[in-house]
Amino acid sequence: MTSKERVLAALQKRPADRVPIFMWFHPETTHLLAAALNIEPRDVDAVLGNDVRQAWVGNNFAMEGITHEHDGETHTDEWGITWVKEGPFNQVLRSPLADAHESALQQYTFPHHAIETLLGSMNPLIPMAQEYFIGCDVSPCLFELLCRIRGMERTLEDFALQPDVAGDLLERAAEFEIALAEAACARYPLDWLWTGDDVAGQHSLMISPRQWRTFIAPHLARIVAVGKAHGLPVAYHCCGAVRPIIEDLISIGVDVLNPIQCHCAGMDAADLKKTYGTHLTFMGGLDTVELLPRGTAEEVFDGTRRLIETMTADGGGFILAASHTVPPETPMKNIFAIYAAAGVSREEIFDRAAATHH
Fold this sequence. Notes:
Layout: H1 3-11, H2 27-37, H3 44-48, E1 52-56, H4 60-65, E2 74-76, E3 82-86, E4 89-94, H5 102-107, H6 115-119, E5 133-137, H7 143-150, H8 152-161, H9 163-187, E6 192-196, H10 209-229, E7 234-237, H11 246-251, E8 256-258, H12 269-276, E9 281-283, H13 291-294, H14 297-311, E10 318-319, H15 332-341, H16 346-355
Parallel strand pairs: 1-5, 5-6, 6-7, 7-8, 8-9, 9-10
Antiparallel strand pairs: 2-3, 3-4
Helix pairs in contact: 7-8, 8-9, 9-10, 14-15
């Protein structure tokens, strides 16, 4: 089977020759893998056998897609957010609306003018569309995007004390996200539309379920509808304890839920599969807190096998991924054990690595 066929089988709850894989690596992990395999970092996904190729076209590109050489270097994105390199990632340094008064909030414009530029990150994926499953990531879409533009503290204050302000910003954020998603879906041979917002912590949502349903759900439904109108499944990413709104996500048309952080409240992968597996394909659930960095290779292999067997009990419905980026302290043998448990041998990986030199 091709990579595309494997992921489609998971979405359709059908068996495949092996479970599809979409593993995210911490940037340092990517470089460690590249060094161990004697390949370029850009080749890691292909060599390890990941089945999805995806690009950021939303604000996550500013956070993860723009790289600086030295800590302290900065850039300002199309939303007016200033980022600074701190360690391997860019962090928000200045939010353009953090101290804005009402008139400035009303005058703020989302970057419709930059849609053509933002979509450009999809172009390198197009030659891969026959073999790989192609995704377009427009996240963060709503709550998390406001937190970056307004600052988290001010955003939470707006939800509680100035609901009209929050509602107006969300309306305009949604209009931009819809335009961005519509342009991407119309132009590229996509296999899914990827949405999302980190709206949950370790134990609960950052806002109440009632607030989420009032402020976020109607706009998210409009964004999801863009993918549906183009015949695409829609994936949703939210770290943390997102369980209180899973039924809502299903009701507005979300097909895939990621990343299933198994240590968070209510996020046991087996229980989620039993409860919601008829309606959702799950992606994630492989523990990056204890198992991957601290377990033995045998424990990682066994844990990965159990996860796959549990999450594919109906024949499919699962994409193997970690519950967060695979951390750099993860031993190489543990990473190879993940893939071995999924049916991709160490020998196969090294053979592909050797082939990149020809």
